[in-house]
Amino acid sequence: MVNILPRDFYARPTLTVARELLGARLVRILDGVRLAGIIIEAEAYVGEEDLGCHARSGKTKRNAVMYGWAGHAYVYFTYGMHWMLNAVTEKEGFPAAVLIRAMQAVEGQGIISARRQGRDINGPAKLTQALGIDASLNGASLYDSSSGLWIEAGTPVAGSDIITGPRVGLDTVPEPWKSMPWRFQLRRR
DNA sequence: AGCACGATGCTCT
DNA sequence: GAGCATCGTGCTT
């Protein structure tokens, strides 16, 4: 049975969505083959007030998708070579998203491993490289399988299995945003 | 196991 | 022109 998370799932507070995406199944159809992983790490980026968020300076061409409908993919390019996958959250007009940072491969592991040349997939740019996610998926619907990229409900995760901490890579971001505990990880089993 | 650094190009000021 | 929600390599402990 297919159980794609609906748009309403994303149209909620970003911290809630980030926590609940842990344990969910990220699915990608690449060259007609189904690849999937269980999301094990995610971070919340919440509005123009959040100085760690790309929307900190208002709407731009790059971050425009974050201002749109919840449940769409915000995919951006950084460091000259890396793609990052986010799920847009909250209500239309409020710029917020969840960065998908890591997953545990559960379908198409052979292809995923080959695409990574045997290296690990524990990291936001590694994940997008493994799944073949790039600018062509910016704005794609995550609640609709026709996009080739969606998220399915997983087994519920106990709160005691979730580790929180500060977001990664915000070295030049001022406090308190730099240290907000808006990174969520599934405890290793 | 951990740290430092270079790669590499797009976006916004 | 500066900075970047990173990664892989290579060198040090």
Describe it:
- With 189 residues, this protein is of the alpha+beta class.
- Helices cover 14% and strands 30% of the residues.
- It contains four helices and eight strands, in the order H-H-E-E-E-E-E-H-H-E-E-E.
- Strand 1 and strand 2 (33-46) form a beta hairpin.
- It is globular, with a radius of gyration of 15 Å.
- The relative contact order is 0.24.
- The chain binds a DNA duplex (13 and 13 nucleotides) through residues 43, 45, 52-54, 57, 60-62, 76-82, 84, 86, 99, 101, 119, 123-126, 129, 167-170, 172-173.
Query: Average pLDDT, to the nearest integer?
Result: 97
Series of secondary-structure elements, N-terminal to C-terminal = HHEEEEEHHEEE
N→C terminal distance:
26 Å
Taking pLDDT < 50 over at least 5 consecutive residues as the criterion, the unreliable ranges are none
What structural class is derived from the secondary structure elements? alpha+beta
**β-strand amount:** 25-35%
> How many strand segments?
8
Radius of gyration: 15 Å
Q: Count the helices. How many?
A: 4
Q: What distinguishing features does this structure have?
A:
globular, DNA-binding, 189 residues
Secondary structure: elements and pairs:
Elements: H1 7-10, H2 14-21, E1 25-30, E2 33-46, E3 73-78, E4 82-88, E5 96-107, H3 109-115, H4 124-131, E6 149-152, E7 162-165, E8 183-186
This protein binds a DNA duplex (13 and 13 nucleotides) through residues 43, 45, 52-54, 57, 60-62, 76-82, 84, 86, 99, 101, 119, 123-126, 129, 167-170, 172-173.
